[in-house]
User: What shape does this take?
Amino acid sequence: MNETNLKIISTRVGYSNSILLVNGSNSIIIDTGVRGYFHNFKTQLNQFNLKPTDIKLIILTHTHYDHTGNLRPLAELTGAKVLVHKNEFENLKNGFIKIPTGQGTYSRLISKLGRIVYPKYASPKPFVANLINENEFDLREFGIEGKIISTPGHTEGSQSVLLGKILISGDTFINLPNGIIFPHFANNPKMLLETWQKLFDMGIEEIYPGHGKPLQVEKAMEEFERWRKRII
Assistant: This one.
């Protein structure tokens, strides 16, 4: 399908976003939200006149529980292939990923306590993905002019979908009502800032974040300067 006909639909599933790329019989879902909201996906497919089998690919931007919560039932419903980054394939397969490091006083406390009391808190349910992104993955075989790129920092295996100048970022960016764009939790904040810089250099203009509403890149650039002074 021509890129101009592609629809990008961002839906809140629990407290994180799932993105539907409406592309006829080659449609794609990016992230599956928080567990317990499977019915949302059925409703959405009906809304856009899509059959479950029209979903050909499920992309995970990373493997935290709030982005993988409805993965298994959705994969079973659609028969879609599931793609994860190579650095988190084993995390998904084994159902374990460490709680990421907090970047503020409160979030650091949550990380430290969580790793002691409930180390599996951030983890997905075990699932074996069909496809692995080694670094970049071309989406043209699914009828979409775009690619999946590595965007590490929030987690080691974070990845984003690049559609021209539009970035579907997972938690590489967030956009909360209080103005926060840099994630509360990031395993490697310095690497995340380096990822941001690379994305800015690529000329992205609009970002669909893992939490919150889409934003223009200028807003993220302002946040980048504040964190650059703090970290680098």
